[in-house]
Task: inverse folding
């Protein structure tokens, strides 16, 4: 059993669900009070779009994960990253009554540095302890490499051209080929090969490669990348195969998940990825269909079934559903990205009290 290096995952990642009336306000995290977000993703649980910010581009620069559109630079969507959460203004999807959920990662407190490890000089802020990096660069249109600052090979890289419209491109170690394959965040297509995205080259401990594809390397355009490296007891990225059985598929993470992104990469349609978290069910281990799709602005799906569909365990999670190809279709291939609520074993080797 690999012990964790991070006994308190909430110091680096938090998922927070809250309700509010219309108007300005703030969200105060209920985990580690020292987490000031550097990457913040918010979704209304009703039908309205995703919004995403990072402290490299700044609080007035909003991206929309469900859409290919360029960033919006109007003020008063997000007004500040706070030491214990964040505050919003009177614009954007926060400016309504309802229920919301946010997912927040800590990088380097907004402090960036120039990285010359790649052929393109990038602007990087990295949290090497938790394997989280925010990377900004200007595309050249030619095959290139970009430094990410993690000091470890990333397992998941999200790239978005933000100065103009562009597809959300994802590289992931669970895809059929880490060097060539992509999946698209805002569309529910199957994953597939696209050699000119990553220049047919896997990322290394210092750089990731980009080809001539305009969504990841458009000449003169600004791009942002979010890179995650796997850390025992804190994050887990991988690949699984559906079995279509009620006993389901168990994914061993080495921790109790707080957040899971689960995606069928074998087919279009319902294979589009789903964002799950325990914040929306408190400490209930049964995550029925309380899903939010990355690829859609639809409201949260809240149907239940007669049995458990998505279960959290102290060392991972179980996919049980036989209802849709989204969850556990026999022989379909799935990828996942998970972040911890509690490690299964602490840095001292003691078991945690997580259920």
Result:
């Amino acid at each position: 059993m690999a012990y964790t290096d991070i006994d308190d995952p909430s110091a680096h990642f938090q998922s927070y669900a809250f309700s509010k009336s219309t108007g300005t306000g703030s969200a105060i995290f209920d985990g580690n009070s020292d987490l000031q977000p550097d990457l913040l993703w918010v979704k209304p649980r009703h039908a309205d779009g995703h919004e995403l910010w990072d402290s490299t581009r700044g609080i007035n620069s909003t991206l929309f994960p469900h859409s290919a559109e360029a960033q919006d630079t109007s003020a008063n969507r997000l007004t500040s990253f706070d030491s214990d959460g964040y505050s919003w203004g009177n614009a954007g999807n926060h400016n309504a009554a309802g229920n919301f959920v946010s997912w927040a990662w800590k990088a380097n407190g907004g402090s960036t540095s120039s990285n010359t490890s790649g052929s393109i000089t990038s602007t990087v802020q990295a949290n090497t302890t938790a394997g989280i990096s925010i990377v900004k660069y200007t595309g050249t249109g030619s095959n290139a490499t970009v430094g990410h600052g993690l000091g470890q090979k990333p397992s998941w890289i999200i790239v978005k051209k933000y100065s103009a419209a562009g597809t959300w491109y994802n590289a992931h170690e669970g895809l059929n080929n880490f060097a060539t394959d992509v999946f698209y965040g805002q569309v529910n297509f199957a994953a597939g090969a696209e050699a000119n995205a990553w220049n047919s080259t896997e990322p290394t401990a210092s750089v990731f490669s980009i080809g001539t594809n305009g969504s990841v390397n458009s000449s003169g355009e600004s791009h942002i990348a979010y890179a995650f490296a796997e850390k025992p007891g804190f994050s887990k990225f991988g690949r699984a195969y559906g079995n279509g059985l009620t006993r389901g598929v168990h994914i061993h993470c080495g921790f109790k998940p707080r957040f899971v992104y689960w995606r069928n990469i074998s087919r279009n349609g319902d294979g589009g990825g789903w964002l799950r978290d325990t914040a929306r069910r408190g400490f209930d281990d049964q995550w029925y269909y309380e899903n939010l799709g990355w690829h859609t602005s639809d409201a949260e799906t809240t149907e239940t079934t007669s049995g458990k569909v998505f279960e959290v365990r102290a060392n991972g999670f179980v996919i049980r559903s036989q209802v849709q190809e989204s969850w556990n279709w026999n022989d379909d291939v799935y990828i996942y990205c998970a972040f911890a609520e509690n490690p299964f074993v602490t840095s001292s080797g003691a078991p945690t009290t997580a259920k």
The chain has three domains: 9-105, 113-228, 235-343. Residues 9-105 form one domain. The longest strand covers residues 333-343.
